[in-house]
Protein backbone atom coordinates (compact mmCIF):
# COMPACT_ATOMS: atom_id res chain seq x y z
CA UNK A 1 0.00 0.00 0.00
CA UNK A 2 1.42 3.35 -1.04
CA UNK A 3 0.64 6.64 0.71
CA UNK A 4 -0.33 9.63 -1.40
CA UNK A 5 2.58 11.90 -2.21
CA UNK A 6 1.00 14.85 -0.39
CA UNK A 7 0.68 12.76 2.81
CA UNK A 8 4.38 11.87 2.68
CA UNK A 9 5.23 15.53 2.11
CA UNK A 10 3.15 16.65 5.11
CA UNK A 11 4.72 13.98 7.33
CA UNK A 12 8.19 15.11 6.24
CA UNK A 13 7.37 18.72 7.07
CA UNK A 14 6.08 17.74 10.53
CA UNK A 15 9.23 15.70 11.17
CA UNK A 16 11.44 18.57 10.02
CA UNK A 17 9.51 21.01 12.21
CA UNK A 18 10.04 18.93 15.35
CA UNK A 19 13.69 18.35 14.54
CA UNK A 20 14.26 22.09 14.21
CA UNK A 21 12.10 22.85 17.26
CA UNK A 22 14.00 20.50 19.57
CA UNK A 23 17.35 21.57 18.14
CA UNK A 24 16.56 25.22 18.94
CA UNK A 25 15.22 24.23 22.38
CA UNK A 26 18.37 22.26 23.21
CA UNK A 27 20.56 25.08 21.96
CA UNK A 28 18.67 27.66 24.03
CA UNK A 29 18.83 25.49 27.17
CA UNK A 30 22.56 24.87 26.67
CA UNK A 31 23.22 28.60 26.25
CA UNK A 32 21.28 29.45 29.43
CA UNK A 33 23.10 26.70 31.33
CA UNK A 34 26.46 28.04 30.14
CA UNK A 35 25.53 31.55 31.30
CA UNK A 36 24.39 30.16 34.66
CA UNK A 37 27.67 28.32 35.21
CA UNK A 38 29.57 31.54 34.57
CA UNK A 39 28.00 32.95 37.73
CA UNK A 40 29.21 30.06 39.91
CA UNK A 41 32.49 29.49 41.71
CA UNK A 42 33.34 25.79 41.82
CA UNK A 43 35.31 26.22 45.06
CA UNK A 44 32.84 28.19 47.14
CA UNK A 45 29.07 28.74 47.26
CA UNK A 46 27.60 31.82 45.63
CA UNK A 47 25.36 32.63 48.58
CA UNK A 48 27.01 32.55 51.99
CA UNK A 49 26.11 33.03 55.65
CA UNK A 50 22.83 34.93 56.16
CA UNK A 51 22.16 35.02 52.39
CA UNK A 52 22.22 31.22 52.12
CA UNK A 53 19.52 28.71 52.97
CA UNK A 54 21.52 27.21 55.86
CA UNK A 55 22.12 30.63 57.40
CA UNK A 56 24.99 31.76 59.60
CA UNK A 57 24.24 29.81 62.77
CA UNK A 58 26.10 26.47 62.77
CA UNK A 59 24.75 23.35 64.37
CA UNK A 60 26.48 20.30 65.80
CA UNK A 61 26.61 16.76 64.52
CA UNK A 62 27.52 13.55 66.31
CA UNK A 63 29.10 10.28 65.24
CA UNK A 64 28.44 7.38 65.10
CA UNK A 65 24.97 7.79 63.67
CA UNK A 66 22.29 5.08 64.03
CA UNK A 67 21.72 2.78 61.02
CA UNK A 68 19.99 4.21 57.96
CA UNK A 69 17.10 1.81 58.56
CA UNK A 70 16.29 3.96 61.59
CA UNK A 71 17.30 7.30 60.13
CA UNK A 72 15.14 9.43 62.42
CA UNK A 73 16.60 7.92 65.58
CA UNK A 74 19.32 9.59 67.65
CA UNK A 75 19.78 6.60 69.97
CA UNK A 76 23.14 4.86 70.34
CA UNK A 77 22.24 1.49 71.88
CA UNK A 78 24.54 -1.50 72.12
CA UNK A 79 25.75 -4.36 74.31
CA UNK A 80 29.46 -4.04 75.08
CA UNK A 81 29.99 -7.80 75.62
CA UNK A 82 28.54 -8.65 72.20
CA UNK A 83 31.22 -8.00 69.57
CA UNK A 84 28.77 -8.52 66.76
CA UNK A 85 26.50 -5.90 68.29
CA UNK A 86 29.22 -3.25 68.56
CA UNK A 87 30.73 -3.94 65.13
CA UNK A 88 28.45 -1.45 63.38
CA UNK A 89 29.28 1.40 65.77
CA UNK A 90 33.03 0.73 65.63
CA UNK A 91 32.99 0.54 61.85
CA UNK A 92 31.07 3.81 61.55
CA UNK A 93 33.62 5.65 63.68
CA UNK A 94 36.58 4.00 61.96
CA UNK A 95 35.37 5.24 58.58
CA UNK A 96 34.55 8.65 60.00
CA UNK A 97 37.97 9.35 61.54
CA UNK A 98 39.71 8.14 58.38
CA UNK A 99 38.55 11.32 56.66
CA UNK A 100 40.61 13.30 59.19
CA UNK A 101 43.79 11.42 58.28
CA UNK A 102 46.12 13.66 56.30
CA UNK A 103 46.92 10.82 53.90
CA UNK A 104 43.23 10.48 53.01
CA UNK A 105 42.74 14.18 52.40
CA UNK A 106 42.45 14.88 48.64
CA UNK A 107 44.21 18.20 49.31
CA UNK A 108 47.05 16.76 51.37
CA UNK A 109 49.50 19.43 50.19
CA UNK A 110 47.25 22.06 51.72
CA UNK A 111 47.46 20.52 55.21
CA UNK A 112 50.12 21.70 57.66
CA UNK A 113 51.08 20.99 61.26
CA UNK A 114 49.75 23.47 63.81
CA UNK A 115 50.38 24.00 67.51
CA UNK A 116 47.75 24.76 70.14
CA UNK A 117 46.00 28.11 69.68
CA UNK A 118 48.03 28.82 66.53
CA UNK A 119 45.96 29.25 63.36
CA UNK A 120 47.22 27.80 60.07
CA UNK A 121 48.98 29.86 57.46
CA UNK A 122 46.94 31.79 54.93
CA UNK A 123 45.21 29.37 52.58
CA UNK A 124 46.24 26.33 54.66
CA UNK A 125 44.43 24.05 57.11
CA UNK A 126 45.62 22.26 60.24
CA UNK A 127 46.34 18.55 60.40
CA UNK A 128 44.23 16.61 62.92
CA UNK A 129 46.54 14.08 64.55
CA UNK A 130 44.69 11.08 65.96
CA UNK A 131 47.54 10.22 68.34
CA UNK A 132 47.31 8.00 71.40
CA UNK A 133 48.53 10.57 73.90
CA UNK A 134 45.76 12.99 72.88
CA UNK A 135 42.80 10.85 71.80
CA UNK A 136 43.06 7.68 73.93
CA UNK A 137 40.79 5.76 74.38
CA UNK A 138 38.90 7.32 71.48
CA UNK A 139 40.87 5.43 68.84
CA UNK A 140 40.18 2.47 66.57
CA UNK A 141 42.82 0.39 68.36
CA UNK A 142 40.78 0.78 71.56
CA UNK A 143 37.50 0.09 69.72
CA UNK A 144 36.52 3.66 70.64
CA UNK A 145 35.55 2.27 74.05
CA UNK A 146 32.61 0.27 72.69
CA UNK A 147 34.08 -3.07 73.82
CA UNK A 148 34.92 -1.85 77.32
CA UNK A 149 32.63 -3.94 79.52
CA UNK A 150 33.05 -1.60 82.49
CA UNK A 151 33.57 1.73 80.76
CA UNK A 152 31.73 3.52 78.01
CA UNK A 153 32.08 4.64 74.41
CA UNK A 154 33.51 7.69 72.71
CA UNK A 155 31.09 9.90 70.84
CA UNK A 156 32.53 12.39 68.37
CA UNK A 157 31.08 15.86 67.98
CA UNK A 158 31.74 18.08 65.00
CA UNK A 159 30.77 21.62 64.17
CA UNK A 160 28.73 21.69 60.98
CA UNK A 161 30.51 23.44 58.15
CA UNK A 162 29.28 26.87 57.07
CA UNK A 163 31.52 28.42 54.47
CA UNK A 164 33.37 31.55 55.63
CA UNK A 165 31.81 31.51 59.10
CA UNK A 166 34.06 32.84 61.86
CA UNK A 167 33.19 32.69 65.55
CA UNK A 168 33.08 35.69 67.81
CA UNK A 169 35.07 34.21 70.66
CA UNK A 170 34.19 34.36 74.30
CA UNK A 171 36.91 35.52 76.65
CA UNK A 172 37.17 36.29 80.34
CA UNK A 173 35.44 39.64 79.86
CA UNK A 174 32.67 38.57 77.48
CA UNK A 175 31.19 35.44 79.04
CA UNK A 176 27.39 35.04 79.26
CA UNK A 177 25.99 37.09 82.11
CA UNK A 178 23.62 34.32 83.14
CA UNK A 179 25.75 31.95 85.27
CA UNK A 180 23.40 29.07 84.39
CA UNK A 181 23.90 29.54 80.66
CA UNK A 182 27.45 28.17 80.65
CA UNK A 183 28.94 25.75 83.16
CA UNK A 184 31.90 26.79 85.29
CA UNK A 185 34.00 24.09 83.63
CA UNK A 186 33.43 25.61 80.19
CA UNK A 187 34.12 29.10 81.46
CA UNK A 188 37.61 27.96 82.39
CA UNK A 189 38.33 25.94 79.27
CA UNK A 190 37.03 27.59 76.11
CA UNK A 191 38.25 26.07 72.82
CA UNK A 192 38.50 28.12 69.64
CA UNK A 193 37.03 26.82 66.39
CA UNK A 194 36.10 28.29 63.06
CA UNK A 195 34.66 27.20 59.74
CA UNK A 196 37.07 28.02 56.96
CA UNK A 197 36.77 27.49 53.23
CA UNK A 198 40.24 26.39 52.17
CA UNK A 199 40.72 23.18 50.19
CA UNK A 200 41.16 20.23 52.54
CA UNK A 201 39.40 21.90 55.47
CA UNK A 202 37.76 19.54 57.97
CA UNK A 203 35.14 20.57 60.52
CA UNK A 204 36.34 21.06 64.13
CA UNK A 205 36.15 17.80 66.04
CA UNK A 206 36.15 16.67 69.66
CA UNK A 207 35.59 13.29 71.30
CA UNK A 208 33.46 12.81 74.41
CA UNK A 209 34.38 9.73 76.45
CA UNK A 210 31.65 8.33 78.69
CA UNK A 211 33.79 6.76 81.38
CA UNK A 212 31.24 4.64 83.25
CA UNK A 213 27.64 4.92 82.03
CA UNK A 214 25.18 2.87 84.08
CA UNK A 215 24.05 -0.27 82.26
CA UNK A 216 20.46 -0.50 81.13
CA UNK A 217 19.80 3.21 81.73
CA UNK A 218 18.78 5.57 78.92
CA UNK A 219 20.95 8.69 79.08
CA UNK A 220 19.85 11.87 77.32
CA UNK A 221 22.73 14.11 76.22
CA UNK A 222 22.68 17.65 74.91
CA UNK A 223 25.87 19.35 73.72
CA UNK A 224 26.28 22.98 72.73
CA UNK A 225 28.84 24.96 70.77
CA UNK A 226 29.61 28.30 72.36
CA UNK A 227 30.37 31.59 70.64
CA UNK A 228 28.84 35.03 70.86
CA UNK A 229 27.41 34.63 67.36
CA UNK A 230 25.91 31.17 67.96
CA UNK A 231 22.24 31.16 68.94
CA UNK A 232 20.96 28.09 70.77
CA UNK A 233 17.54 26.79 69.77
CA UNK A 234 16.48 23.30 70.83
CA UNK A 235 13.47 23.18 68.52
CA UNK A 236 15.46 24.01 65.37
CA UNK A 237 18.60 22.32 66.75
CA UNK A 238 20.69 25.39 66.18
CA UNK A 239 24.03 25.57 67.95
CA UNK A 240 23.48 22.25 69.69
CA UNK A 241 22.89 18.54 69.25
CA UNK A 242 20.86 16.02 71.22
CA UNK A 243 21.24 12.25 71.30
CA UNK A 244 20.64 9.31 73.61
CA UNK A 245 22.99 6.62 74.86
CA UNK A 246 22.08 3.22 76.29
CA UNK A 247 24.62 0.52 77.14
CA UNK A 248 23.48 -2.99 78.09
UniProtKB/TrEMBL annotation:
Lineage of the species this protein comes from: Eukaryota, Metazoa, Ecdysozoa, Arthropoda, Hexapoda
Protein topology in the membrane: Single-pass type II membrane protein
Record's subcellular location: Membrane
Keyword vocabulary terms for this entry: Membrane, Signal-anchor, Transmembrane, Transmembrane helix
Family: Belongs to the X(+)/potassium ATPases subunit beta family.
Species of origin: Aromia moschata
Protein name: Sodium/potassium-transporting ATPase subunit beta-2
A Pfam family of this chain: Na_K-ATPase
Keyword Magnesium appears in the UniProt entry: no
GO biological process: intracellular potassium ion homeostasis; intracellular sodium ion homeostasis; potassium ion import across plasma membrane; sodium ion export across plasma membrane
GO cellular component: sodium:potassium-exchanging ATPase complex
One function term, GO molecular function aspect: ATPase activator activity
Membrane-spanning ranges: 15-37
